[in-house]
Amino acid sequence: MNLTERIDNIMVELEGCYSLRVFEGNDPYRVLIRTILSQRTRDENTDQASALLFSKYQTIEEIAGADVEDLEKLIRRAGFYHVKARRIKMVSQILLDDYDGVVPGDVDELLNLPGVGRKTANCVLVYGFKIPAVCVDVHVHRISNRLGLVDTKTPEQTEIELIKVIPKDYWIELNDLLVQFGQTICRPVSPLHDKCPINEWCDYYHDMIP
Predict the structure, then answer these.
(1) Which of 6, 133, 136, 149 is within CB 3.0–4.6 Å of 155 for a Cys-Cys bond?
(2) pTM value surpassing 0.70
(3) What's the confidence (pLDDT) of residue 1?
(4) CA–CA dist 193, 46 (Å, integer)
């Protein structure tokens, strides 16, 4: 079986196991802020911090005008909250000043925003605009290497290599499916091999078989 067939089988199985989720109503601004909050923290912490933040401040104008100390209290669970609070306030003000409050749907423009790297930019394209992009977080990086789709050391390298092998039709759903798979089955520690729907095509699993 060639790599393309393996990828097709993997994606079909994951599509059958998980439903694609909606993040912050797929509003590009909320997706951007949520993804900034997600940096270097656990998924559940991101969910809690994002929910608290947007329960009090609903618009970009409100966040840009909020006191940093209040933002810090709301997003504390996300970790690194001093840095993140200032960052989301700064990004919000830049968007108001330079983009009329509209998040750009262009990767280069997104990368010009403070604290926005390739993962964040690509997540905004995928979840905020439904523009095909390969969004690589810790789950995608880990699972892609375990499956043998790539052999890389960093998420940046993983993005480059996945672009070469993953058909573009899968790019939008790839991150969400692998994140859910990584949260439930292919965990960083003690992955549930016996419950894995794609272990047939996993190099990591087959390397463990005596």
Answers:
(1) 136
(2) yes
(3) 79
(4) 27
